[in-house]
Amino acid sequence: MFVTLCNSLLPRNFESGGTIVRRSLIITTTILALAAGTSARADDLKVALIYGKTGPLEAYAKQTETGLQMGFEYATKGTMTLDGRKIVVITKDDQGKPDLSKAALAEAYQDDKADIAIGTTSSAAALAILPVAEENKKILIVEPAVADQITGEKWNRYIFRTARNSSQDAISNAVAIGKQGVTVATLAQDYAFGRDGVATFKEALAKTGATLAAEEYAPTSTTDFTAVGQRLFDALKDKPGRKVIWVIWAGAGNPLAKLQDMDPKRYGIELSTGGNILPALAAYKGLPGMEGATYYFYEIPKNPVNDWLVAEHQKRFNAPPDFFTAGGFAAAMSVVAAVTKAKSTDTEKLITAMEGLEFDTPKGKMVFRKDDHQALQSMYHFKVKVDPNVAWAVLEPVRELKIEDMDVPVRNKR
After folding, report:
1. What is the architecture, at CATH level 2, of domain 45-164+301-373?
2. Torsion of CA 59, 60, 63, 65, to 10 degrees
3. DSSP codes, 201-266
4. Cα 152 versus chain centre, distance
5. For the segment 44-93, what is each residue's pLDDT rounded down to a tens digit?
6. What's the pLDDT score for residue 252?
7. What Pfam family is a match, any one (predicted)?
8. CA distance 325 to 200
């Protein structure tokens, strides 16, 4: 192919004697140059990041990208190389749309020759791309989408997830607020993320002895929570003992503030939710003492990885790392640990290496469970503290909920 290319570049009367030698040298030199260039490109370790860089979850996506880059930097001690190969991150914006996400991942595997892919931000988009990984027989590390179906009924063997799943969110929150004599009502977004979260929360809450009185679901675009809030109040107001509305919500809308404006305290009703990104935690300042459980808050984990992330992020961005920064960082750490153990980017060797793999993250140890490739990890029971010198609510740790403290169900049909 290279000879044909080079011949096509030469004049037709380029022939005989010394000119033949010169022609031979030109062809040989061109072949070597092209071959060397091809080899260098092929030798890169290509990681595709599929994410909703634009769209309703863009804040989450940008944090994931920052965390991924910093995670690779930390894990490679600043060299950005692994096993002698340069790590190249290829980013593709799916805007949080399932059809765009499918096309982006297929392009990453087929055209960009990505060795491994990471993504995506929206649970709906993540569910759409699971079959693409299977069709291409390539690893997809899901980060940060959390719907249980990803490692449940829609799972396939090429899927691993560093993000926590809805079960881990729900179980940790149920443990944080659920006790005998507590009555709970839930408010969630009406799509996979919200419904999966409530379904698991109900299961976990029942084990604590608490009672679930009502479930409400609202479209992701909801901004007026008056009617849904009143229904929740009506379901709880006459119940004895402690009464709590637990909210699971991602993106815009801020139902907590709207519910708080409706004065639930007049009925003795408390609000509760999980952790969130720092801008969203600003709204928590109106809820001092609120309890819940979180995936990450920069001041909680105490380990060398988190110490480095917090210090470096503060130095570079004049702000602490956020919720999904830690997630992107964990995904990078898992890639480096997996390729190091497998000594290859061959898919089958990676699967063998990754099943049961333990790796360090800003949250401490994570483990890819062999049954469903979900990363088991710590969660944190918190109580909201208001510090006037900080723009967001401080999540004070009540206790670390370790891997062994949470019975996270396996939901696939492996």
Report:
1. 3-Layer(aba) Sandwich (3.40)
2. -110
3. HHHHHHHHT-EEEEEEEE-TT----HHHHHHHHHHHTT-SS-EEEEEE--SS--HHHHHHHT-GGG
4. 16
5. 999 999 999 999 999 999 999 999 999 999 999 999 999 899 999 999 99
6. 72
7. Peripla_BP_6
8. 25
Placement of tokens 């909703």 in the chain: 52
Q: Per the structure block, which two tokens stand in for 84?
A: 């002698």
The answer to whether 46 and 115 are in contact (CB under 8 A) is yes
pLDDT at 22 over 80: no
Q: Which of 199, 261, 272 is nearest to 230 (CA)?
A: 261
Q: Where are the beta strands (DSSP E) in 102-182?
A: 116-119, 139-142, 159-161
* CA separation for the pair 290, 267 (Å, rounded): 16
**Which CATH number does the domain 168-294+380-405 belong to among 3.40.50.2300, 1.10.10.10, 3.90.1710.10, 3.40.50.1260?**
3.40.50.2300
**Domain ranges, ordered by start, for the chain:** 45-164+301-373, 168-294+380-405
Q: With beta carbons less than 8 A apart as the criterion, state whether 306 and 362 touch.
A: yes
pLDDT at 8: 36
SS3 per residue for 249-288 = CCCCCCHHHHHHHCCHHHHCEEEEECCCCHHHHCHHHHCC
Distance CA 84, CA 1 (A): 29
Tokens of 128: 């759409």
Strand partners, 396: 383
Q: DSSP 3-state assignment of 45?
A: strand
* 188 in Cβ contact with 158 (< 8 Å): no
pLDDT greater than 60 at residue 35: no
Close Cβ partners of 306 (under 8 Å, ≥ 6 residues apart): 298, 326, 362, 363, 364
Contacts 24+ apart (CB under 8 A), 29-34: 30/2, 30/5, 30/6, 31/2, 31/3, 31/6, 34/2, 34/5
Per-residue pLDDT at 283: 87
In this chain, the answer to whether the domains covering 45-164+301-373 and 168-294+380-405 adopt an identical fold is yes
265 to 10, 165, 214, 290, 386: CA distances (angstroms): 85, 31, 18, 12, 19
Give the C-alpha separation, 166 to 204, whole Å.
Answer: 12
